Amino acid sequence: MRAKNVDFEVTYINLRDKPDWFLELSPHGKVPMLQVDGRPLFESNAIAEYLDEKIPPRLHPEDAFQRARHRAWTDFVPLFASGLGGVYVKEPEKREKAMEVARQHVGKLEDAIAVERNGGDGPFFSGPDLCLVDAAYAPFLQRFSMVEPMIESGLMADFPLVSGWIDALVNDPRVQGSVPEQFNDLYMEQMTKRLDKAT
Q1: Helix (DSSP H) and strand (DSSP E) numbers for the chain
Q2: SS3 content of the chain, % helix, strand, coil (to 5)
Q3: Which residues have CB under 8 Å from 10's CB, separation 6+?
Q4: Distance between CA atoms of 148 and 159, rounded to whole angstroms?
C-alpha cells in the first residue's frame, strides 16, 4: 500500500495475545489481514494480488508470462524463509547443516535475479522498480540483515545480486515504514534471547 500511496490505518496485533475480534476476522489467526469495506481479506499473497489488481500502479509485470514467473517466485517465499531462518543458530554443527540448505535457496534467487533483470540493472528483483516479488521477500531479508551482525554467517558473501537486493530493500522507505517504530528493538531483543538460549 505504501508503494501505491494508499491511505490506510494500521492496527497492530500482539501475536502472543490475539484479541477475539481479530480471530473472528482472520480464519488462520495470522497477520496481515486487510479489511475492505468491512470485509476481511487474509494471507499476504492474496492481499498483495488484490491490491495490485485494484490500485495502480501495477507492481506485477504487464506481460502474462512474466507475471506468472513472478508469482512462481513469490510462491518460493515460505521455503526460502524457512531455510534462511535455519541459520539463526550459534552451534557450529547446526549452523553448517542449515547453511547448506540456505545457500541452495539463496543461489536460486541469485540466478533468478540475473534472469529476471535480463542483463539490466537493479536494484530490485527484476529491475529499477519495486515489484510484488520484492514486497514478498522484504520482511525476511530485512530481518536477516538485522540478525546477520549477531550471527556472522557470511551467507551472502558469494551472492552479490542478492546482497545488493537486500541493501536496496532494507534502505527503501516503503520497507522501513512497514513495521512499527519499536519493531527493530523488540525483534533484536527476541533474537538475542533465542540465540542465548541455544548456547
Answers
A1: 9, 2
A2: 60, 5, 35
A3: none
A4: 15
